[in-house]
Amino acid sequence: QLQLVESGGGLVQPGGSLRLSCAASGFTLDYYGIGWFRQAPGKEREGVSCISNSGGGTYYADSVKGRFTISRDNAKNTVYLQMNNLKPEDTAVYYCAAADFHTDLGEMRVADFGSWGQGTQVTVSS
């Protein structure tokens, strides 16, 4: 059974940093692109960043470019999202999800991803 588990969320002040982790079990990430998504209360789930199965392709929403960095360690079966200079509008539940390696990740479409994790809360507040 494919499982993804997010961790690393928490409460941070504006301008602070967090690193989220997405650990996979039951399958190897080698053949999957991974996406990070977020959902704030009352809003639709939106794509934040994606990374191809090889790690050679990375994609970011305009709202996080220059602040967030996605990376993966296939040996550890884990994908990371380093979030710097956090803003209150980054507050949301963050989810990771897997997509088949041939998926076009550039659009970060929710419907293209399966095997979602349970989410981790990120709150940016002073």
Structural class: mainly beta
C-alpha geometry: globular
Strand order of the largest sheet: 2-10-9-4-5-6
Distance between the termini: 40 Å
Largest sheet: number of strands, sense, barrel closure: 6 strands, mixed
> Rg to the nearest angstrom?
13 Å
- Give start-end ranges of low-pLDDT stretches: none
Q: What is the typical, i.e. mean, pLDDT?
A: 95
Tell me how many strands there are.
10
The number of helical segments is 0
Helix-residue proportion: under 10%
- Residues in β-strands, percent: over 45%
The run of helices and strands is EEEEEEEEEE
Could you describe the 3D structure shown?
This protein has 126 residues and is an all-beta fold. It contains no helices and ten strands. It is globular. Helices cover 0% and strands 47% of the residues. The strands form two sheets. It has a six-stranded mixed sheet, with no helix packed on it.
Topology diagram in text:
Elements: E1 3-7, E2 10-12, E3 18-25, E4 32-39, E5 46-51, E6 58-60, E7 68-73, E8 78-83, E9 92-100, E10 120-124
Parallel strand pairs: 2-10
Antiparallel strand pairs: 1-3, 3-8, 4-5, 4-9, 5-6, 7-8, 9-10
